[in-house]
Amino acid sequence: MFKLPELPYGYDSLQPVVSETTMRTHHDKHHKAYVDVTNTLVPEKKLEGKTLEEVVAFAKANDEKKLFNQSGQAWNHAFFWECMTPTFAKPQGALADAISSAFGDLEQLKAKFVAEGVGHFASGWVWLVVEGGVLKVISTHDADTAIAHEGVKPVLVCDLWEHAYYLDYKNLRKDFLEKWFDGVANWAFAAQQFEAAVDKGEAYAYPAPADQAAAA
Fold first, then answer.
1. Euclidean distance between CA atoms 155 and 193, whole angstroms
2. Is the pLDDT of residue 148 over 50?
3. Which of these ranges, 50-54, 101-105, 172-176, 200-204, has the smallest mean pLDDT?
4. pLDDT by residue (tens digit) across 23-33?
5. What is the Cα 172 distance to its own chain's centre?
6. Tell me, what's the pLDDT at 211?
7. CATH numbers and ranges of domains, the chain
8. By C-alpha distance, which of 155, 95, 167, 90 is closest to 125?
9. Which of 27, 81, 119, 143 ranks highest by number of CB atoms within 10 Å?
10. Alpha-carbon distance 198 to 26, whole Å?
């Protein structure tokens, strides 16, 4: 059974960019529902003991749409929580160099990231990823996740579903994305993911299922 990961900060820690009300609703209701449904589907497919990454891969390979949607959303949200921090600091080191190489500077990355998110129709996710050794900005629809795409390695993500921002920003997705990028984006976490993407570290993994963790 997969557990709902706890937030790595307090519900109110990301204010004023993301309100406590939004965080409680988003984490305790939306994310919990995805994890709960995933846990009901895993035994049906005889996937007990598999990592969530393996469940997502199985669902994608076998066109198990319901399982893919639920497990993909469970994974995306857990990664998203790590992509935010109450102690914002600009990217440093190898990640900063890679941003300069790919986009020119952080402001140009912001412009591309925000434009991709604003231009994305309906629900989904906007990602900073490494593909072919180079940083790129992409978006995925609905529950689709970067980890389901061969050769694409996630570095940072922001949620574009309305439940991520509507209580705080109504329909002003651009305002949300700009404030998110400038105020709570976790560039220290992104730097770790970048190092992993270029084979210099370990990438984020969803917490192991309870039975697997107990066996370890």
1. 5
2. yes
3. 200-204
4. 999 999 999 99
5. 20
6. 63
7. 20-82 (1.10.287), 93-197 (3.55.40.20)
8. 155
9. 143
10. 32
Q: State the first-to-last Cα distance of the chain, in angstroms, to the nearest integer.
A: 15
| CA separation, residue 201 to residues 39, 176, 188, 191 (Å) | 30, 31, 13, 10
| pLDDT the model gives residue 199 | 87
DSSP string across 126-156: EEEEEETTEEEEEEEETT--GGGSTTEEEEE
* Contacts for 34 with CB less than 8 Å, ≥ 6 apart: 70, 71, 73, 74, 77
pTM of the model: 0.96
Any residues with CB less than 8 A from the CB of 134 and at least 6 apart, and which?
Answer: 98, 102
pLDDT tier at 215, thresholds 50, 70, 90: very low
- Res 200: pLDDT: 86
Q: How many CA atoms does the CB half-sphere of 136 hold within 13 Å?
A: 12
| Residue % of the chain over a pLDDT of 70 | 97
- Alpha-carbon gap, residue 188 to 73, rounded angstroms: 23
Q: Going by C-beta distance under 8 Å and a sequence separation of 6 or more, which residues neighbour residue 166?
A: none
For residue 159, give the DSSP letter: E
